[in-house]
Each structure stands twice: as structure tokens, then as C-alpha cells.
Design goal:
It contains nine helices and eight strands. By secondary structure, the chain is α/β, with parallel strands linked by helices. Bound molecules: zinc ion.
């Protein structure tokens, strides 16, 4: 796909809409096709910081455990640094960023004229579906693979099919954090739909369908 080499995408959507899983799959697809797109997940970046016990990680963990957003400036600096890495020079998908208007504005400022966003894809899905998806989600503590107790179970309960690692429920997928995350999405992130809609770059995708169907449509939308 010719456009893939210069794709600069934002995947927008509520927690549980499937944007992380899809971004990973899209990145794998393009890597296999020989024109890699870097998958830039702020969630993964933050978890790596938390795991390493960095100053940023310790600060971020406090917010994440409560289901709150990590402050804008912290995230903005982290993404700016990440986007300058060599693997992100040609093409990338931002997953989990921007999450607020100030973050979207900072991203625009950081991307000069010919570097502007090429695609903003909104994953649309009813809230009650999200709650079921999030509460059943389990993550491999070793390789980061994402499973689900009902929708995508592992062969052996609690053990990752891919690497044999132990599955954990992320602190922000616990019931007390889910309600808070969805509320944060409604108040802070949903306004970005209007922000990008006004600029004509927004494409909506119905994310309440099987991952394979969503994936195929996503590839079409990214052409
Ligand atoms: Zn694993």
C-alpha cells in the first residue's frame, strides 16, 4: 500500500474499544509487507516507565491506579521523545494519545506542515460493551499479549498462549477504575472528535464487531 510509508495516524476511542489490539495488528501487517509503521502506545510506554521504576514511572503509576489521566505535560514530553526515534521516522500510529485537547494541540505544534496527521480514526462502540470487554481483559505480564476471559481465552486459564507467561489483570482494568476511565474519556477525550472532525481528517469505524472485520475495514480506511 503506497500511502503506508508516510502514514501518521491517531487511533481514537474509549478504553476497551480495541484500538490497541488493532494498532498492533496493523503494525504487524505493514511490517510483513515491508513498509513498517511504528506502533506508539502511550500505555505501553508508561508501563515500561513504571516497570523500570523511573521518576516518570513512579509519578504516572499514582494516577493510573486511580483511573486518572497522567498530566498532559508528562505525556507530551514522553511522546515527543518517542516520535523522534529512528523507527518512527517514516510512519506511525499513535495509540492512547492525544487524550485531551491540550495534548492534541501540542501534537499539532510538534508536527510541522508536511508532517501533519494523515488519518484520525475513531473507534465507535457502546459503553456497556466496553465495560464487559475491560473487566474480562487479562494481560500477559511477560510479553504484553492481551487476552479476554470470554472473548479471547487462553488454552490454560491464567497462562499466556504465546509465551507461557502469567496473566494479570491490569490495575486500570479493575472494576473500580473502569467507571472512572470511561468518565474521563467522556469528559476529556470525546471532545477530540469535534476537534478533528472540524478539520476533515476524522474517519469513524464501528468497533462493535469482530476484530477481523474491524481490521479489514481499518486497512481500507488507511489507504
Ligand atoms: Zn505472553
Amino acid at each position: 500500500m503506497a500511502t503506508s510509508t508516510t502514514a501518521r495516524c491517531v487511533f481514537l476511542g474509549a478504553p476497551g474499544a480495541g484500538k490497541g489490539t488493532q494498532a498492533k495488528q496493523v503494525a504487524e501487517h505493514f511490517a510483513a509487507a515491508g513498509s513498517p509503521i511504528a506502533h506508539l502506545s502511550t500505555g505501553d510506554m508508561l508501563r515500561a516507565e513504571v516497570k523500570s521504576g523511573s521518576e516518570l514511572g513512579v509519578a504516572a503509576k499514582g494516577y493510573m491506579d486511580k483511573g486518572q489521566l497522567v498530566p498532559d505535560q508528562l505525556i507530551i514530553d514522553m511522546v515527543k521523545a518517542r516520535i523522534q526515534q529512528p523507527d518512527a521516522a517514516a510512519a506511525w500510529i499513535l495509540d492512547g494519545f492525544p487524550r485531551t485537547l491540550p495534548q492534541a494541540e501540542a501534537l499539532d505544534e510538534n508536527l510541522s506542515g508536511d508532517q501533519a496527521l494523515t488519518h484520525v480514526i475513531s473507534f465507535s462502540i457502546p459503553e456497556e460493551v466496553l465495560v464487559g470487554r475491560l473487566s474480562g481483559r487479562r494481560t500477559c505480564g511477560k510479553c504484553g499479549a492481551i487476552w479476554h476471559v470470554e472473548n479471547r481465552p487462553t488454552k490454560v486459564e491464567g497462562i499466556c498462549d504465546t509465551c507461557g507467561g502469567e496473566l494479570v489483570q491490569r490495575s486500570d482494568d479493575r472494576p473500580e477504575a473502569i467507571g472512572k476511565r470511561l468518565e474521563v474519556y467522556r469528559t476529556q477525550t470525546a471532545p477530540l472528535l469535534a476537534y478533528y472532525g472540524d478539520r476533515g481528517v476524522l474517519r469513524e469505524i464501528d468497533a462493535d464487531r469482530s476484530p477481523d472485520v474491524v481490521f479489514q475495514e481499518l486497512l481500507e480506511r488507511m489507504q
